[in-house]
Amino acid sequence: MLALSNVPGKRGELRLRLGLKEGRTIIKDAYNRVPLKIAKPFYLEPETGEIFLYQMNPTGGMVQGDEYYQEVTLEDGARAYFTTQSAAKIYRMSDSYARQVNVFKVGEGALLEYFPDPVIPFARSRFVGETEIFLHRGATVFLAEIVTPGRVKRDEVFQYEYYHSKTKVYWEGELVLWDNWILTPGSKDIRGLGIYEGYTHYGSLFIFSEQVSQGLADKLHGLFAEADELVGESGNGQGILASASLTLKNGVAVRLLGYRASDLEKAVTTCWDLARRELVGLQKPRIRKY
């Protein structure tokens, strides 16, 4: 596999600095380089002043050699919901790979809610994703990820070559989470015991706050006791497999396996709503996408 720096591709970049002005979170500084940009921000919770941001990519997906970098800094007390306009498509590649780096810096008492749409790795695609989060006292973070097996309706199930996702979370400079997983369907049956357990879609939700407790983890875990009721009836009559447990410090990790992205999105949203009520004191807002 060729080094990324030796392969032609887009070098997209997005940098945002968010801060407070008269009780409302605003964009204090912004820089972008195509193909990354954001739509005009709006506010769904006037009472909190939280800003809602949509990252946009007019190219429609990533090809070999593409490298995206986005950095979002929330100053003390800022609040932001950050998402994407649509699913992230990783296209077929003859060599090399595509890479995206996310860096989030969350100040004291700030709130970050990051819910990108699912990732769709096409057949023969290769992708590396790296996320680093730096948290300060009083910060709260919700971080979600959903990965599909490919273009299911074209029978491209687990035909991608390589999917690597790394997440590091630092609390006041201390590394409190290092999540590192690599999927290589071509060389190993990932649908087997101990990996996907026969399921096809993967999801995760990481929650960080000083208010996180074993009680919250137990409540989240309890949601999946009746998984079919939580997500509704799947196409094959089965629901999801999921669990929630505490991380090293101030965090809960929720991991999910299912058969449809919509099932996992609903389950993740339900978990988010429960945790948001407990940690932030507010139910989830109604997100407008279409």
TrEMBL record:
Its main location: cytoplasm. Keywords: Chaperone, Cytoplasm, Nickel insertion. This is Urease accessory protein UreD. It is found in: Cytoplasm. It comes from Desulfotomaculum nigrificans (strain DSM 14880 / VKM B-2319 / CO-1-SRB) (Desulfotomaculum carboxydivorans). Pfam families: UreD. One of its GO terms (molecular function) is nickel cation binding. Belongs to the UreD family. UreD, UreF and UreG form a complex that acts as a GTP-hydrolysis-dependent molecular chaperone, activating the urease apoprotein by helping to assemble the nickel containing metallocenter of UreC. The UreE protein probably delivers the nickel. GO terms for cellular component: cytoplasm. InterPro entries: UreD. It comes from the Bacteria. Required for maturation of urease via the functional incorporation of the urease nickel metallocenter.
